[in-house]
Design a protein that fits this description.
This protein is mainly alpha-helical and about 750 residues long. The chain is built from 36 helices and three strands. It has a three-stranded antiparallel sheet with strand order 2-1-3.
Length: about 750
């Protein structure tokens, strides 16, 4: 299809014929060749009489303004292609200068609007561009594994009918998602005008794909790509894109991709009644949107993904970008639907579009794009309707499983009833919003929407065609995909300089042979040789910087605190799995011997050797327990090791085992003994008492489960063994005090 530039010359408002000619340049029903000829005529008229054709008044003819020189001065400064969103800090004081269009009613049909509206937005470049160069860069990043999708510019686009090179259907979801998204981005000139880093943009799209759920029916990565294609159709229309800057179009693209990334596929009411953790964190106003924003913004602001490289762009400021995305996405929530509709009606009544109206228009276009199936032809409408109805049915089953009331009273497996439900959804949710911004919706898409909300026409067409509405009898069990949200929240809230964070960065190096601490000259030389390799040396330098070590990186000796945190992680792992104390002691001794044999007393190593089997490690632990006493305080442990394991000290050849290891051994044994004591006391009490006040029968498994459910853990990458059973033991110490001692000594 030949490209038609959207840079149509502006005409004087007192020239009725030229206004009509200008409006015809945007009429999609006119053949492309005729529109090109008409555009050439207008360009000729502009060059012959530039002063007449390039004057645009701020008000219609009947406003009574006579100072034409003032009007010309005001309109000479149109909105630049890099205009900074709608932010008041960059807006001009004069309200007229912030206007995008006067005499433009967003609720009116596009043809009627362009017959009388005046636009102040003067673009230096068209919205669309040749995709070849940009897509080639993206395909290079993807190692030539994606294909340009020609159909992304078509109104009848079907994401399930994207062809491969051999004309077969593309079935790989990741490749399909990347092909569609990269094809859309490469078609828009914003990738060039905003100087986007194409490599980082491609990496960003790859990363966010992994966060879309594969268990959902509707809110998937393919639905996000399908919604992005629908939004691109909106912005392809000249009667829509002339209102927005390239930065605002990019914001809309990002908002659509954000909507499904962490969607739990449940209504907010269901999440509230289930007491879901997301409701605890975000409340019930827009819980799904805020959860998706957390994940999306976290991936976007990573250094390897943040593709905004032009400092003069307003989106280069991350805080402004975050605020803008929050505004657009939050306005699409169902709780704010009435507010958004009222604001859009006010924009239509004002008969003009200014900077303050842009957030509401972008939110409306985002919401319409997410419900793209309502604007699709019948086959696509049936497919996505099946997916959405299956999600509703699965939610109803989940509510029934938790003994909650019905949220959807008419959900069943009858196809006619399902069609009626989907038609009602489109008529009540999508159609009113499309009517308020009718001027921004292409005419053909709006006609599809009207056909899809006509129940009689839908049923008649489905009976006369091969479109079959099939509902899966056995839906997949709902799976909670909020773990990514909680994980990112934990990362964002954890202190960047905390000892937990520093130790976790080095945890993967603790048990590797080249990182084990030995004082043998032979092993030290081998470590030095390994450290000469660029990849390992870089890791070691980063590790020491992260851990705050003042030692030379070439020494490659991890700090004592790193080993202690590894021991704590081992303790936590065994405690959670409920394994016996003998298993823990043997594993702890084996781990300590691997990291540094001098953690174990010389007498024990002389008896069993440095290379022990699992059984020998258990026997060594029994020997150590019988010979040595557990230190009383954490301070004594730190002092005893700091005297013998300084950065430049010689190895400790004493007969004493490391005090921290002795303490962990004693803690685990006391925990096991306390658990057995509690279980025995409860069983004895049940045998003595015939009448119990509680119907709940306490068993050893129940006691262990209760103790595990009630224990508190530190919110850090390394979870510490802090449970109520060990805290009740006499002479036990606080893990928090131990950590503070370790941090101060390190």
């Amino acid at each position: 299809m030949p490209f038609v530039s959207d840079a149509v010359p502006k005409t004087a408002c007192n020239t009725q014929a030229l206004n009509r000619l200008q409006s015809l340049c945007y009429e999609p029903s006119i053949p492309v060749e005729s529109r090109q000829k008409l555009l050439a005529v207008l360009n000729t008229l502009q060059s012959s009489n530039h002063n007449t054709l390039n004057t645009v008044s701020l008000q219609p003819n009947n406003d009574g303004l006579s100072n034409t020189k003032q009007n010309k001065d005001q309109t000479s400064k149109g909105i630049d292609i890099h205009a900074p969103l709608w932010h008041r800090a960059y807006a001009q004081n004069d309200g007229e200068r912030r206007s995008r269009a006067v005499g433009f009613n967003v609720a009116m049909s596009p043809f009627r609007n362009f017959a009388k509206s005046n636009s102040f937005n003067k673009r230096s470049l068209p919205v669309l561009q040749d995709h070849t160069e940009t897509f080639a860069q993206m395909n290079k990043v993807m190692c030539q594994t994606i294909r340009y999708v020609e159909s992304v510019s078509e109104l009848e686009f079907d994401i399930n009918d994207v062809k491969e090179y051999d004309n077969s259907i593309m079935v790989d979801k990741e490749r399909l998602f990347m092909s569609v998204c990269c094809s859309i981005f490469s078609n828009f000139s914003l990738t060039t005008t905003l100087s986007l880093d194409i490599s980082k943009l491609t990496n960003f799209l790859i990363d966010i794909f992994n966060y879309y759920s594969e268990e959902h029916y509707f809110h998937t990565a393919l639905h996000a790509a399908d919604s992005l294609q629908m939004l691109s159709l909106f912005f392809r229309e000249p009667n829509t894109n002339f209102l927005f800057t390239d930065e605002e179009i990019l914001l809309a693209f990002l908002s659509v991709l954000c909507m499904d990334i962490a969607n739990p596929a449940l209504h907010s009411m269901t999440l509230v009644e289930l007491n879901h953790p997301l409701v605890t964190v975000f409340g019930n106003l827009s819980v799904k949107k805020q959860a998706s924003l957390i994940v999306f913004l976290h991936q976007l602001f990573l250094d390897e993904n943040f593709f905004m490289t032009m400092p003069q762009s307003m989106l280069y400021a991350k805080n402004l970008l975050q605020e803008s995305l929050n505004t657009i996405v939050i306005f699409t929530s169902s709780r704010l639907r009435s507010y958004l509709m009222n604001q859009l009606r006010c924009v239509a009544m004002l008969n003009r579009v200014d900077g303050e109206s842009i957030p509401y228009l972008l939110s409306a276009l985002t919401h319409l794009s997410v419900n793209a199936f309502a604007f699709r032809p019948r086959r696509q409408w049936v497919f996505w309707g099946n997916c959405l109805y299956a999600e509703w049915k699965r939610e109803a089953e989940e509510r029934q499983r938790h003994w909650l009331g019905e949220l959807f009273p008419n959900l069943n497996y009858d196809p006619r009833s399902a069609v009626a439900t989907l038609v009602g959804y489109c008529a009540s949710t999508v159609k009113p919003l499309a009517d308020v911004v009718k001027s921004l919706v292409p005419t053909d898409l709006y006609d599809n929407l009207e056909r899809n909300v006509d129940r009689v026409a839908v049923e008649a067409e489905m009976e006369s065609t091969r479109c079959v509405f099939s509902i899966p009898k056995e839906t997949r069990t709902w799976s909670d995909n909020s773990s990514s949200v909680i994980e990112i929240l934990r990362k964002n809230t954890a202190h960047a300089n905390s000892l937990d964070r520093k130790a976790s960065k080095c945890a993967i190096l603790n048990a590797s042979p080249q990182r084990s601490v030995t004082y043998s000259m032979e092993r030290q030389n081998s470590i030095m040789q390994l450290s000469c390799q660029p990849s390992i040396s870089d890791i070691e330098v980063d590790c020491f910087r992260a851990c705050g070590s003042e030692a030379n990186p070439n020494s490659v000796s991890p700090t004592r605190s790193e080993h202690y945190f590894s021991f704590l992680r081992l303790y936590d792992e065994f405690e959670r799995s409920g394994r016996s104390s003998l298993d823990f002691l043997s594993k702890l001794i084996f781990f300590a011997l691997q990291l540094d044999p001098h953690y174990i007393g010389r007498y024990a190593r002389d008896a069993f050797g440095d290379d022990c089997t699992a059984q020998q490690c258990g026997e060594m632990a029994v020997l150590i327990r019988s010979v040595e006493d557990t230190p009383s305080t954490a301070e004594a442990i730190v002092n005893s090791r700091s005297r013998s394991h300084g950065p430049t000290s010689m190895p400790d050849e004493s007969n004493n085992t490391d005090g921290f290891i002795l303490l962990l051994m004693n803690m685990y044994i006391q925990r096991e003994e306390e658990t057995e004591r509690l279980v025995s006391s409860h069983i004895l009490q049940e045998n003595i008492s015939e009448d119990t006040e509680c119907d709940y029968k306490t068993s050893p498994s129940n006691i262990l489960r209760l103790s595990k459910d009630n224990k508190t853990q530190r919110d850090s990458p390394i979870r510490l063994p802090d449970n109520p059973i060990t805290l009740e033991v006499k002479n036990s110490f606080s893990i928090d005090s131990l950590i503070s001692d370790l941090e101060s000594s390190n």
